[in-house]
Amino acid sequence: MDEYLVSSLKRLYDDCYNAIEEDRSNKVGDAIVDRYHELLEEIQDEFPENDRIQRLENIETSGYGGRAIATDVQEVKFAVTSIADSLGLDSEDFKNIEGGSDMPIIQIKNEQSQTQEQTQQQYVTVEEIQEEVDRLMTSPENRQLIEKRIEEFESEIEKENPDKERMIDAISFVRDTSTQLASKLAMRALQHGVNIIEYIE
Prior knowledge:
Radius of gyration: 17 Å
Number of domains: 2
Order of helices and strands: HHHHHEEHHHH
Shape: globular
Low-confidence stretches: 96-122
Largest sheet: 2 strands, antiparallel
Strand order of the largest sheet: 1-2
Number of strands: 2
Helix content: 55-70%
């Protein structure tokens, strides 16, 4: 199986686990469900003769106004596990959060202190990005634009060949409101193998 699809499945599982454990499903559930739908389409195209995978369907969100809630995220998590089982992947590989040893770690600068440079280990998740957006002191209109750019950014990093220019454009837009949020997006890109840190310094 294509390594890109395997790593995408693992990342999606990790994000589901985080969202459920941290009670953030209502914040990031829509993005998780959307990414699952995109990934499911790619996997079904890759394995047209796998009946079990072909029977999987898009998930209907069940929250108010059509928003995803915890049960929908849990359903995505189960679907990812089902895909892994169907393809003969070891489901234990998808439990790196519980095991705690296989998640990629990055070094980033701690900007809270201007007098002393420090580094800390941090794995930037979808949940942390959404938390940053929620804390922004900006207008509802600008927040909506930022969320749209972040959705585009997340869509790009899940692709096998992400458009680096689109990612940089999204980060530049976000940076006009929050350099910290832009930095976290750049770190998230790095986790997916795209180094654009230099563009937010």
